[in-house]
Amino acid sequence: MAIDDIYTKGIADGWKVVDASTLKQDQTYEADVAIIGSGAGGGTAAEILSAAGLKVLILEEGPLQTAANFKDMNDARAYGELYQEGAGRATSDGAVAILQGRSVGGTTTVNWTSSFRTPPQTLQYWADTFALKGGGEADMAPWFAQMEERLGISPWAVPPNANNDALKRGADKLGWAAHVIPRNVRGCWNLGYCGLGCPTNAKQSMLVTTIPSALKNGAQLVHHVSVRKLQFSGGKVSGLSAEALGPDGVKRSGVNITVKARHYVLAGGAINNPALLLRSNAPDPHQRIGKRTCIHPVNLSLAMMPEKVEGYYGAPQSVYSDEYQWKHGATGPAGYKIEVAPMQPLLGSVIFGRYGEELKTGMAQLPNMQSMLALLRDGFDEQSPGGSVEIDDSGAPVLHYDFSDYMWDGFRRAYLSMAELQFAAGAKQVMPLHLDSRPYESWEQTRTAIGGLQYRKQRVPVFTAHLMGGCAMGEDEKLTVVDSDARFRHADNLSIIDGSIFPTSIGANPQLSIYGFACKNATKLAGVLKA
Q: 60 - beta bridge partners?
């Protein structure tokens, strides 16, 4: 079955798409609204603002790749081309590996499609702690509903693959809560390679939904362009300067790009947005830019099952358990959401975390390997304030992130919960992913071993694919960077519309949270700009 190349046809029909790597001389662009970033926030904003009749310019650092590029489902190519720093982004000390998208569509192009509304506990915490207005459960319900309809978000109706079914089986046996995950797909082929870009256009990412819609509305997309600075003057942003990147998306071509707009929207994410503001010497009287950068720290557990799991096939995530997410409320011991990780060979080998003969032997058992992960909530307790983004001498972003005993205790409890689930599901062996662990053959043995592990950086492998905060929203000026409508406090014509405005982590995969708040804030912004 042939898959339509949306962009080839669209460009032939007149869509305004510029590959900045092909430019030979400096350029100046003008627009009503310039949007920096094309992921969940930028893509949603682009559709809404362009539909209001505004002239929209979308600037994206990464490449434009489509289903035609994804059909090989090649791990090495996808991670190298579609992720920040070739999937090598990490915290400043290397203790946390960061998977973040970098292409047209942003992380929505490569995420695993899990889509949850912001939990009411999180929304209430934001209202209580940061004086967020208009962000309560009832306030947000229509915006979430609008985006669920727009992106086909609904509980996955297909039986889970064996990797996810093990979670459900274990939870059912233990009497723990387990539910089906909503996914943003239409006509999904259930291939399982979502993290490499969808080869069938089934994933309703910004790449195939809102950005094409914005382009039909007359928006312009420029990709392979790195925005370096905003110019602040007289309480406004007067312009921005950017540089074209070469075909590799890394080296600068020498072509400079200037943008003049009535309004500017930052949508580059929780690491890149603060870095841009810091490079630009943005006004920041309370030193809040880049602070409270939350990441949902993730630890994992592997199990060897008696039957084939083949976790590289089928919807990556379709079952979750919140048994230990809100057990003590929003401010008790660190809560965590339990899901699974897909096990394609490259990602599986990274997760396995061994080398040499041990890696070879372990990966030979990949078909029977089951994985679980725990998303820990950060940002809800003074002992887990998130990290901080700074810039190095070149202006590149650096994320510093530390763990307190509070968070190490969360990792320990998460290891225990995952191992208990895996044995309840019938595992022959379970190995908590830790440098000092090994496969254990009983729940009792594993429980004892987990209690004796060292909980410190570089011993506990930690991952994240969820970046939130760094430009927190709310009405408390001493704690936040933008107001409740996502308007930057110290420049009348600057908004931030993406996950960087979240004051804490979400406690669930954040893409629908970004869609909902982006829809709300971009709709209000469109009304203001059209007035």
A: 223
Instruction: Name the strand (E) or helix (H) holding 467.
Output: none
The neighbouring-strand residues paired with 388 are 400
Task: Locate 181 and state its tokens.
Answer: 């995950």
In angstroms, the Cα distances linking 306 to 50, 359, 444 are 54, 20, 19
Query: What residue has token string 């009497």?
Result: 175
Question: Residues 6 or more apart from 82 whose CB is under 8 A from it?
Answer: 62, 63, 65, 101, 102, 103, 109, 110, 196, 197
CA dihedral angle for residue 308, residue 313, residue 319, residue 322, rounded to 10 degrees: 90
| Domain over 162-184+298-377+404-456 is classified CATH 3.30.410 | yes
Structure tokens at 376: 């820990």
Question: How do residues 260-287 score in pLDDT, each as one tens digit?
Answer: 999 999 999 999 999 999 999 999 999 9
With beta carbons less than 8 A apart as the criterion, state whether 201 and 214 touch. Answer: no
| Domain 6-113+116-150+192-292+468-530 fold | FAD/NAD(P)-binding domain (3.50.50)
- What are the pLDDT digits (tens) for 31-86? 999 999 999 999 999 999 999 999 999 999 999 999 999 999 999 999 999 999 99
Label residue 456 exposed, middle or buried (CB < 10 Å: 0-12, 13-18, 19+): exposed
Q: Dihedral (C-alpha) 128, 132, 135, 137: value to the nearest 10 degrees?
A: 0
Residue 21 has φ and ψ, to the nearest 5°, of -70, -15
Within the chain, all domains assigned CATH 3.50.50.60 are found at 6-113+116-150+192-292+468-530
Helix intervals (H) in 283-384: 345-352, 356-363
Residues 140, 168, 97, CA angle at the centre, nearest 5°? 70
What percentage of residues in the chain have a pLDDT greater than 70?
A: 100
Q: What is the pLDDT of residues 91-130, one digit of tens each?
A: 999 999 999 999 999 999 999 999 999 999 999 999 999 9
pLDDT, position 5: 87
Torsion of CA 188, 192, 193, 199, to 10 degrees: -20
Give CATH 3.30.410 domain extents, the chain. Answer: 162-184+298-377+404-456
pLDDT on residue 4: 78
How far, rounded to the nearest angstrom, does the alpha carbon of residue 47 sit from its chain's CA centroid?
20
- 8 Å CB contact between 493 and 151: no
Rounded Cα gap, residues 260 and 236, in angstroms: 12
Both tokens assigned to 37: 């970033």
